[in-house]
Design goal:
This protein has one helix and nine strands, in the order H-E-E-E-E-E-E-E-E-E. It is of the alpha+beta class. It has two domains: 43 residues; 114 residues, 3-layer Sandwich (Rieske Iron-sulfur Protein), CATH 2.102.10.10. The mean pLDDT is 87. The structure holds FE2/S2 (inorganic) cluster.
Length: 169
């Protein structure tokens, strides 16, 4: 092998190495951007397992707050997360479970805690109001109804799953 050939192959080796390192660095920068872009798509498919929350016999037509816990798995970390729901029976006997998370900025709404609105959910943070069925009252800060929990009743127990925008649960 001549000295010239030897030098060329060394240059090629350097080119390959620099290209490889450059590609590795570019991938390192691009991967978080790609993940950030597709993460909501991946999360949208995430479903919450149904968990028992209360006995159906406890329910009345008056919303009551029930606190419960769900198992949450984030990558390798598993934890128990607290959740709450306002649950009641409609006039026709259907179980309705609403998320207490205000759709304005995420405060917790309470049932009938505003004396001027005894039959509505009230958010004390910015005076948000919702009707009993979760619909936001016009001209108050929330712009959407309270989320609705997926639910099922089995052996007299009420189970709740994911809270979803009204109409999707
Ligand atoms: S967070 Fe509920 S009204 Fe603003």
């Amino acid at each position: 092998m001549s000295e010239k050939n030897h030098r060329v192959s060394r240059r090629q080796f350097l080119n390959y190495t620099l290209t490889g390192v450059g590609g590795f660095m570019a991938a390192g920068m691009l991967m978080p951007m790609v993940r950030f872009a597709i993460d909501p798509v991946l999360k949208a498919g995430a479903e919450q397992d149904m968990v028992p929350v209360c006995d159906e016999s406890e329910l009345t037509t008056e919303p009551q707050r029930f606190d419960f816990k769900i198992d949450q798995v984030d990558a390798w970390y598993e934890s128990e997360e607290p959740r709450s729901a306002w649950i009641f029976k409609s006039e026709s006997g259907d179980v309705i479970a609403l998320s207490p998370v205000c759709k304005h900025l995420g405060c917790t709404v309470n049932w009938a805690s505003d004396k001027a609105n005894p039959n509505r959910f009230f958010c004390p943070c910015h005076y948000g109001l919702y009707e009993k069925n979760g619909d936001n009252v016009p001209n108050t800060p929330p712009l959407a109804p309270l989320d609705v929990y997926e639910h099922k009743v089995e052996d007299g127990k009420v189970y709740l799953g994911s809270a979803k925008p009204k109409g999707e649960a």
